[in-house]
Specification:
By secondary structure, this protein is an alpha+beta fold. It folds into two domains: 129 residues, Nuclear Transport Factor 2, Chain: A (Roll); 124 residues, Glucose Permease (Domain IIA) (Distorted Sandwich), CATH 2.70.70.10. The protein contains five helices and 17 strands. Strands 7, 8, 9, 10, 11, 12, 13, 14, 15 and 16 form a ten-stranded antiparallel β-sheet that branches. It has a five-stranded antiparallel β-sheet with strand order 1-2-3-4-5, sandwiched between helices. It has a two-stranded antiparallel ribbon with strand order 6-17. Strand 4 and strand 5 form a beta hairpin.
């Protein structure tokens, strides 16, 4: 991530009121991220650490790169389902020698909020060729754990699933207990893509598809605990990382959208100032 402006000094501006229902957690790292948040947030510490780490996974591995003396600031709450929801987070990183931040904001034209840097750059990477036009969040990457062979996109049931590249449908609905409704596409370069946990298939085996064709609707079928799309790519009989296979891009906003984002990040910085003032 690019460097951001330093945290606002409490002496320069009075901290903004904390919105009702939101918590501010601020701590200095003395052990692991999980231990740090356990000490600072009690019973919610493990869940908060997991959400926080997901925000910065694109630039840092917080299991390896976190250092004693780093500082974490986060504004969060529990939503109606009891899940952790973060509106803004900062990491004062000794490894990077600077502060990185993530602010939740909905860009004009987007269906969902995402996390953005103050300079108008989106925090998470996006696939250059993606199976979804829009989604809430990437919740799992191939590198997260050895037992997971793809990446997961959190998205509501019924979201159109696209073929990222031209290809041919080679299988549908195999291994229902694990995969649920599923579709397999053989790309022209030999890549084999698997789309799992679908609510509905829109293609049949042997059908040719073009890039951008709707092949299914996302769902929550098979071995799935929440609505999402599992996207997996294999080549030469081996699982490959979709981030490497398709390439990635970070979106940027400019002009009036950037000004709107900067106003929102300024407001959230003032809220996080509560944590800095009390530290």
């Amino acid at each position: 991530m690019r460097p951001l402006l330093p945290p606002r000094s409490p002496s320069r501006a009075a901290p903004a009121p904390i919105p009702p229902g939101w918590e501010i957690t601020s701590a200095e790292v003395t052990h692991s991220l999980a231990r740090t948040f356990q000490n600072a947030a009690g019973d919610d510490g493990d869940a908060l650490a997991a959400v926080y780490a997901r925000l910065f996974v694109w630039d840092l591995d917080l299991r390896r790169d976190l250092q004693r003396g780093d500082k974490v600031d986060v504004a969060w709450r529990k939503d109606g389902r009891g899940d952790i929801e973060v509106i803004a987070a900062r990491l004062h990183s000794g490894k990077l020698g600077r502060t990185v931040a993530a602010y939740r904001w909905q860009a004009p034209g987007d269906a969902f909020t995402s996390y953005w840097q103050e300079d108008g750059t989106e925090v998470p990477f996006r696939l250059k060729e993606a199976p979804l036009q829009d989604y809430e969040q990437i919740t799992s990457l191939l590198k997260d754990r050895p037992s997971h062979a793809g990446m997961d996109f959190k998205t509501p049931v019924g979201t159109p699933v696209l073929s990222p590249r031209p290809g041919k449908i080679t299988r549908v609905n195999w291994n229902w207990a694990a995969n649920g409704n599923c579709v397999e596409v053989q790309y022209a370069d030999g890549g084999l893509a698997k789309f799992l946990h679908l609510s509905e298939n829109r293609v049949e085996e042997g059908t040719a598809v073009n890039a951008g064709d709707v092949i299914a609707l996302s769902g929550n079928t098979g071995r799935s605990t929440a609505p999402h799309l599992h996207y997996q790519v294999e080549k030469g009989g081996k699982v490959v990382d979709p981030l490497d296979y398709h390439g990635t891009v970070r979106r940027r906003v400019e002009g009036a959208s950037l000004q709107a984002l900067m106003q929102e990040t300024s407001r959230m910085d003032a809220i996080l100032g509560q944590a800095l003032a009390s530290r």
